[in-house]
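Bench notes, afternoon.
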Amino acid sequence: MNQKFGVIGLGRFGRSIARKLAAKGAEVMGMDVLQEKVDSVHNDITLAVRLDSTDKRALESQNVNDLDVVVIAIGASFDAMLLTVFLLQELGVKRIIARAQDETQKVILEKMGVTEILNPEEEVGNNMAELLLNPGALMCMQLPDDFEIMEVTAPRKVLGRSLSDIGLREKYNLNLVTLLRKTDDAHHIMGIPDARTLVEKDDLIVLFGKNSDIDRFIDINQ
């Protein structure tokens, strides 16, 4: 895992994202103004730090500008959320993802130039972690017992190959739900493709299987 992630705000939502990322092997820095929340994830992630994210010097002291992605999961104070967004932008953080609790907050964040906005459900936290770890993933639905359904852009190494040649079930222990093919600037479901179907550029593959097996399929073929 090459990317470095930061999570600011370690309430239930932030903890969910931070722990999921770390469980997948990501390097994660968790930050919160309350020591008890920092302590709650101390043993689960790479680094847990107590700091006030509205203090530019505190952010600079942790080199947050070196992080590839920062998720702002602050829920208690929208003012603190907005100031944190502003400071991260000032520090040149590459990718900022923020939490909005209602439509008004979402509009305000969009006005500030934030294009990736989350709602505060814990399950979305889990799904968002999957999407962050797999940039080719477009949709993820977490299921019990470490299973998931994920929609991914067809990886480079499977393009032009038939489904039988790719061997999703035999080689990766995955089931194909369906393919979506781009026509007229939109993707359309191909129903139930047969084994002779060739995977084309811009196809989307919907997979069902264990989290680890889907990760392995993407890693091997990207």
